[in-house]
Write a structure and sequence with these properties.
10 strands
Amino acid sequence: MEKPKVSVIIPAYNCAGTIGRAVRSVLRQQVPLEILVIDDCSDDSLDQVMEEFAAGPVLFLKNEQSLGASGTRNRGVSLAKGEYVAFLDADDWWEDEKLSKQLKRIEETGAVLCSTARELVSPDGTPTGRVIPVTETITYRQMLHQNCINCSSVLLKTEVARAFPMEHEDSHEDYITWLRILKKYRTACAVNEPLLKYRLSNSGKSGNKLKSAAMTYRAYRYAGFSVPRSFWYFLCYAVNGVLKYGKA
């Protein structure tokens, strides 16, 4: 088997209704890859759904105890064989050329992390027509004021992912990781095309706006900022969030 260029990590928890579309979208990518679907102690019919993907580059693993999304992604990173890792939530999916376009962009820029724009879809998978764009160069300063890197869009050097594991499940753990990476590397790159289809949800971390706001503030504190600076960055984040999702 050809050595994977990209290891795609999909944390899975009670996602039998959506995981199939996510995995099939990865299988359509035109790059050598492996897919690590890691079940975080689901109690639905996920096992039966995953039987469809028993052959091929899909490795279906189970956590012995619940690790949460961040711990499950970290486990995937530790097992990855690819030069790059990509994260995909089990209810999202990709356009066919997503990874190949990101690899080209990384080669052009020398960046260690690449994101994409995303199209918002309704909980039932219906397109909303609403696209969240991204600048093709993302700076650390820009990230302090808003998280413009969606986790399901990320392609990242595996060695960097291992150096900056996701922590603090009680906050937006991916945002903390992107901040730490950009603090070191200064910039990330992006493809400003909606190559990610991002499913809106009322039950995820971002569904409860007050809870999400508290988690964002905690992310700044975990990232090492003082209370005044954390509060200021949170206000900027909140304003940008209203502008970004107000019409969604």
